[in-house]
Design goal:
Elements: H1 2-14, H2 35-61, H3 65-95, H4 100-103, H5 138-148, E1 156-161, E2 165-170, E3 179-187, H6 191-199, H7 201-207, E4 211-219, E5 224-231, E6 239-250, E7 257-264, E8 276-278, E9 280-290, E10 293-303, H8 310-339
Parallel strand pairs: 6-8
Antiparallel strand pairs: 1-2, 2-3, 3-10, 4-5, 5-6, 6-7, 7-9, 9-10
Helix pairs in contact: 1-2
């Protein structure tokens, strides 16, 4: 546009058009343009066409700088809002130290179970008073199981493989991060094998490669301990870590039923580390022998904190659960073959 205006001014300054004395003939005979000005105008026009063509080619190859700067400003504003929300959540957590399920109540569409939630058997051991804040209480376990067994009517089915697994997600009031529920049927795999692969830290470090660190930092009794976990995040995100209270339960009345409870806690012997963002959440795994195999059900909520937009977390977490199912299946089938329990064919 700028070059066109220059060209017009060039013609206007060097041309004199007289409609009264203009000779009859083509339109260009009415212009009195000298050769230098004509050549200059031609060069301006050719240069303008070249610049426009170059701009179009550049726009196709890469975004305009102004658009990039505008997008960066928008993202920075969103990150500021997310940070303010996270800071408010952290302050609330420090003032109200409850189980995760206490912070997230069922929505109005989900009625609580008509009967009291199922309970698990007491571990039968006494917890030292100084360690009481670092264990999952019986009421918290019962509440987690109640949510695990609640109807899936108000859950969203994310992915399903019939007769194998299904992954559901649910947005819960007062929580920015969704809950994820998995239902799996492992054919010809005992529940005890699944429990051992998940409970034995040495075994889990071998097959679950997402962990940078997975260590027991405190043993409270034979059922309760405190774990430190750290995972690697892709650049430019900081790595995440967490301190979790863990409780393992093998039901005495039903030897084919196993539970694993996890809840993130604040532990004075393991403060936050430089270069890591301390995550929050809870999880529950239930394994039970049924006809033909093992029925596995899990309920997980993990908040990696930091400045990761919540919509990214909520969209990727269910898919990560599906990848974990496939990896766990392959490992469990290989373990069954190694033990010679049943000739399970390789997972496809």
């Amino acid at each position: 546009e700028y070059m066109g205006k220059l060209l017009l001014l060039s013609f206007m300054s060097s041309s004199s058009v007289s409609s009264q004395s203009a000779p009859k003939g083509p339109w260009w005979t009415s212009l009195n343009v000298s050769l230098p000005h004509f050549l200059g105008g031609f060069i301006v026009v050719a240069g303008s066409i070249h610049l426009v063509s170059y701009a179009i080619r550049s726009h196709r190859k890469k975004p305009i700088v102004a658009d990039l700067l505008s997008e960066v400003k928008r993202l920075r504003q969103e990150l500021r809002e997310v940070k303010r929300s996270v800071d408010a959540r952290i302050a609330e957590h420090h003032h109200h130290h409850h189980a995760p399920s206490h912070k997230h109540v069922p929505d109005n569409n989900e009625s609580p179970p008509s009967s009291p939630p199922p309970t698990v058997e007491s571990t039968g051991t006494s917890i030292p008073p100084e360690m009481a804040d670092y264990v999952i209480t019986e009421s918290q376990k019962a509440e987690m199981i109640g949510y695990l067994d609640a109807t899936i009517e108000h859950w969203t089915l994310v992915v399903e493989k019939p007769d194998f697994y299904a992954v559901y997600s649910k947005k819960v009031p007062n929580a920015d991060v969704i809950w994820v529920k998995c239902e799996i049927f492992w054919r010809d795999i005992p529940a005890s094998v699944v429990f051992e692969l998940l409970h034995n830290l040495e075994e889990r470090r071998k097959w679950d490669k997402m962990w940078l660190e997975l260590n027991r930092i405190e043993t409270i009794d034979e059922h309760n301990d405190v774990l430190y976990q750290a995972i690697a995040c892709p650049y430019p995100l900081a790595n995440r870590d967490s301190v979790q209270a863990r409780c393992s339960v093998k039901a005495h009345s039903n030897p084919d039923l196993f539970y694993l409870f996890f809840k993130c806690i604040q532990y004075p012997r393991c403060p936050e580390r430089p270069g890591y963002v301390r995550s929050d959440g809870f999880s529950l795994y239930r394994m039970q022998d049924v006809a033909g195999g093992c029925k596995f059900t899990s309920l997980v909520q993990t908040d990696p904190k930091g400045n990761i937009p919540k919509f990214i977390i909520n969209s990727t977490t269910p898919r990560m659960a599906e990848r974990w199912i496939k990896r766990m299946t392959a490992v469990a089938e290989q373990r069954v073959r190694d033990l010679g329990i049943l000739p399970v064919p390789p997972f496809q």
